[in-house]
Write a structure and sequence with these properties.
Length: about 270
Amino acid sequence: MLKEKAPQTNRYKAIIAKIFENHYTPEMREFEFSRAEIIDIAADLGIALPKNIGDIIYSFRYRYELPESILATAARDMEWIIKGSGTALYRFKQVKLNRIIPREELITVKVPDSTPEIIGAYALSDEQALLAKVRYNRLIDIFLGITAYSLQNHLRTHLKAVGQIEIDEVYVGVDKHGRQFVVPVQAKGGSDKHGVVQTDQDIAYCQSKFPDLLCRAVSVQFMTNGRIAMFELLVQDDEIKVVEERHYQLVAASTITNDDLRIYSLHSD
């Protein structure tokens, strides 16, 4: 009889911990496993699988910490990540520990809020609301200094070497020199975290699909008091690096003072 009472995170942790246990030895720094193993282990443990089996992997990539039994095996200043390794294949790999957290000491720039009120009333999630605010207020343009247009949101596609991926939103843009760009955007809400895996696959997709465009990967997240943190990210030696970070706050135009404008002029590039 399948066990339905355990919280979802506990069910997922039990499955991923067993997969790790079945493969790991102390000298290992990476190993591959298949989606079929998830099904077999769930059956052995008497755990009901979600309709979308991939949600188990997605959760540990972007939402939840891996079980302590896995975390404890990582070398000093390293962490385990789960990467796509092809169709229905995944790879545990140790990489340098890295957390992207907004820097509270950065200046917050006030931007006149152009978000239609009806969007705020009916957005179904933090992520949807965040993507809408970025889009309606042209924050990609402001942050990157280009003219950008939303090409597609919630793009689900497949990369041969990675497997299925999802990109929250893809923009294309042009600058004053005529250079053209593709901008994959991650939206982080709630307990989601910035991860090397998603940034790496976003860039890989854009380089494969748009080889003639310059790729600039962006991640956005809500901060306290309605502020929005924006990061331009890249991956170097399996580490996520911040190229630039800016903070914005959407406000009524009448609340932006002469003092605010004076401060911004003193800190312009």
